[in-house]
Amino acid sequence: MKNIPDVRLGLIAVSRDCFPIALSERRRAALAAACAEIGAPVYEAKKTVENELDMRDAVAEVKAQGCNALVVFLGNFGPETPETLIAKHFDGPCMYIAAAEETEEDLIDGRGDAYCGMLNCSYNLGMRHLSAYIPDYPVGTAAELAEMVKNFIPIARTVIGVKNLKIITFGPRPQDFFACNAPIKGLYELGVEIEENSELDLLVSYKAHKGDPRIPAVMEDMAKEMGEGKYYPDLNERMAQYELTLLDWAAAHKGDREYVAFANKCWPAFPGQFGFEPCYVNSRLATRGIPVACEVDIYGALSEYIGACAGLGPVTILDINNSVPKDMFDKHIAPNTEYRLTDTFMGFHCGNTPSCLMCSDRAVKYQLIQHRVLEPAGSEPDISRGTLEGDIAPGDITFFRLQCDSEGVLRSYIAQGEVLNVKTRSFGGIGVFAIPEMGRFYRNVLIAQRFPHHGAVAFGHYGKILAEVFRFLGVENIAYNRPANMPYPGELPFQF
Length: 496
Known about the structure:
This protein has helices at about 20-35, 50-65, 80-90, 115-125, 140-165, 185-190, 200-210, 215-225, 235-255, 270-275, 280-285, 300-310, 325-335, 370-375, 440-445, 465-470, and strands at about 10-15, 45, 70-75, 95-100, 140, 165-170, 195, 260-265, 290-295, 315-320, 345-350, 365, 385-390, 395-405, 410-420, 430-435, 455-460, 475-480. With about 500 residues, it is an alpha/beta fold. The strands form 3 sheets. A 6-stranded antiparallel barrel has the order 10-11-16-15-14-17, surrounded by 4 helices. It has a 5-stranded parallel β-sheet with strand order 2-1-3-4-5, sandwiched between helices. The protein has a 4-stranded parallel β-sheet with strand order 7-6-8-9. The longest helix is centred in the first third of the chain and has 22 residues, at about 140-165. It is globular.
């Protein structure tokens, strides 16, 4: 099941009728060639837009070529009404960029004034309430603009994914986990559909998959992924049956949507009825770009899916869980880094992180907390088995979340940092995280803005892409870990 969009970029040049159309077309050809050179190919529309009828023809041309994202190029000043109507009539994310002047030897017939035209373009987009991506400095040479086009691809891919996403849930949020509950109004504002189901629906479907002839192949793949001694052989059949249940449900229920994410209830009733914990299966689907958020965290699932589209790699969802003990910090972190203790914390969840993101000690184990609660004291774990546990591998990360607050307003945060190469000596899927100025971010963003304890984690630094995606989607509140010299709103300089 392919669950991440492919981007097919179109390139439309525009030209104001009092400027030479040949200037815009020549610059368009140079931009298309520069894009091809750096591995960001575009379909170069033959129709150049000077008026509204040209706009319709150009949009029809790129649609006929299967383009699902668009670069609108001001090769000269550009016709402000037709060029902005492109974004209205094209069903996909649009980027607007403008040509820089090329040489002092050609500033009469060769001057395009696109630097000025971009101002009018932006003004008209705003008047029409049209969303478009405009880079930080959207004017450049063909080579410079080609790099901007390449940077637009993951932004476009993520927006396309969100606009064609359905989130499927099973079960209500667990008791006392209201932090995972949020109004679904924000999903509809983003263009996301949702299908909410009972845990009983999932159980009925799971039982119907008993004896599915595909189960042995999935069991074999699970054993190959984990390696001998790293899984419970008697448990694989149940987990393979569950994996097929989710995949079949996604295929049968995505409706008119192309992509799917899940937000499923995983405790306390689940292990008693299904006979295992679902965490390892969740991790396997996340590896394939199909996030399965824990504890019916709908906006966690959305955040994970956004991260998967942005970075084209596996993501996870973790609790912003516990502080790092001072003796661990003093012994393993302080001697090797510039971080302070308050810059660090442990990110944890029961075992949903993809195995490819974990150290070699990872293995399918049992959920310690659920074993305490659900199984007799002193007994061998049975139904509490199924978590993928081990330390998360060190490397760059982006911790982020898109959330609808209790008032129905979309808000978000993004913080870049790293997983440190420090053994956690704990249980679950867990790692020692470091984010600059985490202590202030924790108090002035996570607490002050009432974000829940779950955060999505992308493995790499994707802050810029995520910020541009959130802006494109109309999210006005994008919080981040501010440096020490930049106070948060309401943060005062006084100390005890």
